[in-house]
Give the backbone structure.
Amino acid sequence: MKSGYRLFIGLAFFYAVVAVFYWKLGGEPLGVTAIALSAGFAGIIGFYLWFNDRRTGLLPSDNDEGEISDLAGELGFFSPHSWWPLVVALSACATGLGLVLGWWLTVIALGSLMIGVLGFTLEYEKPEANSHH
């Protein structure tokens, strides 16, 4: 993790410097904006990795004398049979396509995207079966 956040923080500073030079040398506004956004996005990822590194402490991948077996164990829960990621992906594609073809498709796709995100998020939330309130 340490190398990850150092890489992205370094990229954020690099993009910021490049954006300033590009702006000073008469670069177009769209290019300056794109490079500045790249700096911001790299900074966000770097901050996230730094924050998690500070919270989790030394990971086996950061230990020079660590073994592969140090990373063994449960990694988390991954849904083996969920259709919601497909709904979210298709809705996101339709939303982007709607920006090109027409706003009517964007509105429909955003509704579908909200339903997909809610379904994906709440897929394993089950109400209690015996509650008669």
Notes: The chain has two domains: 2-61, 84-121.
